[in-house]
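Session log. Operator J.P. requested a structure for one protein chain; no other inputs attached. Running the standard single-chain path with token output.
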Amino acid sequence: MACETCTRFGEVTDEQREKVREIISHYKGKPGILIQVLHEAQQVVGYLPEEIQTMIAEGLDIPLSEVYSVITFYALFSLKPKGRNVIRVCKGTACYVKGADDIMEKLEEDLGTKGEDTTDDGRFSVEIVRCMGACGLGPIISVNEDIHARVKSDQLKKILDKYE
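Structure written below.
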């Protein structure tokens, strides 16, 4: 989910800080709520920067290291802001054999990213997934909710030009 109220890409606003404080206040004192608080905070901010992690740790009276461990353990959570468009590249066995690495290399070259990363302008984030469930159509990428099958690296520019 991309940040909807950021003034600059990746910047946390006062409004977002206040919403996160309200989330913390709502759950404070309840057992086993860290994942829920992290999930709701990420929905507000778009990711979980150190500032938000510290707010949550202090607000729930738990160690910052525990907050960080949960964030880094679960793939659901992100330490970096996501781009407006999320490109997912399938690297399951079938897609890998059919050229997923070529697609990743071309994305890195065209976007100026390395591996799973976000472009400096916040337009795209690249993620690697292990299977999209359509092995016969590989290699597959998705951009947001759109699936693109049998993708060749020379088709990427045309595909990505559709997304602002």
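Operator note: The CA atoms of residues 141 and 148 lie 5 Å apart.
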